[in-house]
Amino acid sequence: MLAAEVNHIVKSYADKAVVNDLSFSVAQGEIFGLIGPNGAGKTTTIRMMMDIIKP
């Protein structure tokens, strides 16, 4: 069973792609982390998953 699944999401701000064609799935009970430098789109990805912002 999947706890989360993301398929081909894209987000741009002012012609700058911050998330580009991201896909992944997380199984229930699995430990998963988003890591990357500042501006890599980690927070944007979580906000899209939570439906706080639209892709």
UniProtKB/TrEMBL annotation:
Transport found in the keyword field: yes
An MF annotation (GO) of this entry: ATP hydrolysis activity
Residue ranges of domain ABC transporter in the record: 19-55
UniProt-listed InterPro entries: ABC_transporter-like_ATP-bd (IPR003439), ABC_transporter_ATP-binding (IPR050763), P-loop_NTPase (IPR027417)
Keyword flag Nucleotide-binding: yes
Key words of the record: ATP-binding, Nucleotide-binding, Transport
Signal peptide boundaries: none
Family to which this protein belongs: Belongs to the ABC transporter superfamily.
Name of protein: ABC transporter domain-containing protein
